[in-house]
């Protein structure tokens, strides 16, 4: 088993909405930020951009670091996640074509006040909520042996 996992994501927040993507790989519909596992030797921003472009199908400008989450658990490798602020790059069709709330899966903008109902990953939800409120870089540590990774 690997000793750690690195991932990176991009936060696209417009007005009072955040772009999230669907993940139904575990058989349950869950929403999260577009992300990628960081490849060996890959810069974090490049991984975040790659993940966004692969999952959303559009280009993004990756900005400053927003937050880092560290999750630890006895049965899992250490997980570090780096989230960056981002801005959409206007290309081709309007972004409304990506934001299709009627689709079961895909990408959509979710109002900030509804993120808790969409994002089940508690560490992500807590860190993202703090960043959206404060817009300051924070490092969050979650011990999954002491708290549940899933929201209520």
**Sheet with the most strands?**
8 strands, mixed
Name the shape in a single word.
Answer: globular
Q: What is the CATH homology-level superfamily?
A: Nucleoside Triphosphate Pyrophosphohydrolase
Helix content: 10-25%
Strand content: 35-45%
CATH class: Alpha Beta
Rg estimate, integer Å: 15 Å
Q: From N to C, what is the helix and strand string?
A: EEEEHEEEHHE
- Give the terminus-to-terminus CA distance: 29 Å
**What fold name stands as the CATH topology?**
Nucleoside Triphosphate Pyrophosphohydrolase
User: Spans of 5+ residues with little confidence (pLDDT < 50)?
Assistant: none
Would you report the number of β strands?
8
Q: Please tally the helical runs, counting DSSP H or I stretches of 4 or more residues.
A: 3
Secondary structural class: alpha+beta
Arithmetic mean of pLDDT:
85
CATH architecture: Alpha-Beta Complex
**Overall tally of domains:** 1
Describe this structure in words.
The mean pLDDT is 85. By secondary structure, this protein is α+β, with helices and mostly antiparallel strands. It is globular. The protein has one domain: Nucleoside Triphosphate Pyrophosphohydrolase, CATH 3.90.79.10. Strand 2 and strand 3 form a beta hairpin. Strands 1, 2, 3, 4, 5, 6, 7 and 8 form an eight-stranded mixed β-sheet that branches. It has helices at 44-56, 115-118, 122-134, and strands at 4-14, 17-23, 30-32, 35-37, 60-73, 76-88, 107-111, 138-143.
């Amino acid at each position: 088993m690997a000793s750690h996992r690195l991932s990176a994501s991009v936060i696209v927040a417009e007005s009072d909405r955040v772009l999230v993507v669907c993940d139904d790989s575990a058989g349950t519909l869950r929403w999260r930020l577009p992300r990628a596992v960081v490849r060996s030797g890959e810069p974090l921003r490049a991984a975040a951009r790659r993940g966004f472009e692969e999952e959303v199908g559009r280009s993004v400008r990756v900005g400053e670091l927003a937050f880092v989450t560290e999750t630890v658990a006895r049965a899992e490798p250490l997980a570090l996640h780096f989230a960056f602020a981002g801005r959409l790059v206007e290309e081709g069709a309007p972004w409304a074509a990506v934001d299709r709330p009627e689709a079961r899966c895909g990408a959509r903008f979710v109002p900030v006040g509804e993120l808790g109902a969409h994002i089940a990953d508690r560490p992500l939800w807590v860190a993202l909520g703090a960043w959206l409120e404060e817009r300051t870089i924070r490092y969050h540590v979650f011990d999954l042996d002491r708290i549940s990774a899933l929201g209520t």
